[in-house]
Write a structure and sequence with these properties.
Elements lengths: L7 H4 L7 E2 L4 H11 L3 E6 L3 E7 H10 L4 H17 L3 H4 L7 E2 L4 H11 L3 E5 L5 E6 H5 L6 H16 L6 E7 L2 E8 L5 H9 L6 E8 L9
Helix pairs in contact: 3-4
Length: 222
């Protein structure tokens, strides 16, 4: 009824470079530079994701270059020293990998990224096989959606069902992602419901109301 939410598979990059556990350090660096990415999925078998190697996993080797090993251990701990001495993707990677399913909503993917503190996620199927990669930039693309398209979805999927005429007469305007609903409605208790639904429309930055009950002209707060 209220539209179809975009999911990760709608925005993910399907052409993804990955490495195997035995990929050497220099090969990992070369692929990152060539593909202009800051992390690579590590796969085994037919493409099952077993970890992720990132720039942060590579940096300890450079940090150790001019530091005494004993001092480095005190500064970074045993894990940092292991990363610094690693020569393959399997030794460098963070495991298990933080991943997301292709059918997850963009909001779900954003929450996973935020909790894990990562900029991109491997997208996997039900057996953890690599299907793509989704980045922060991919998730933000929805905010580039045209104002007219957003307004049309609000009218079609929300106003026409929740606030239909003749009992309510509501106009929808969207400017720079801010949706404004004006007019008259029969039941003002529906305003919070409308607010929640409109905010859930992809591309909406904020929602405001200038609605009156029936013909009374009393404005309602947004």
């Amino acid at each position: 009824m209220y539209g179809t939410r975009h999911i990760v598979s709608d925005v993910m990059t399907q052409t993804v470079v990955s490495v195997g556990r035995r990929a050497p350090f220099k090969e990992v660096v070369r692929l990152m530079q060539e593909w202009r990415v800051s992390a690579l999925p590590v796969t085994e078998g037919e493409g099952r994701v077993v970890g992720v190697v990132s720039e942060a996993d590579l940096l300890p080797k450079e940090e150790l270059r001019d530091s005494p090993p004993e001092g480095y251990v005190r500064l970074r701990g045993g894990a940092g020293t292991a990363k610094a001495r690693a020569v393959t993707a399997g030794d460098l990677m963070s495991s298990p990998a933080v991943t997301v399913r292709a059918g997850a909503t963009l909001a779900e993917a954003a929450r996973v990224m935020a909790r894990a503190g990562v900029k991109r996620l491997p997208v996997v199927d039900g057996t953890d096989l690599l299907e793509g990669l989704v980045s922060r930039a991919d998730l933000l693309d929805v905010f580039l959606r045209a104002d007219d398209d957003i307004a049309e979805e609000v009218r079609r999927e929300i106003v026409s069902y929740l606030l239909p005429p003749p009992g309510s007469v509501v106009q929808v305007e969207v400017r720079d992602g801010v949706a404004t609903l004006t007019g008259r409605i029969r039941d003002t208790s529906l305003v919070p419901v409308a607010a929640r639904l409109v905010r859930a429309v992809e591309g909406v930055v904020d929602v405001r109301f200038d609605l009156a009950h029936g013909g009374s002209g009393a404005g309602l707060p947004g």
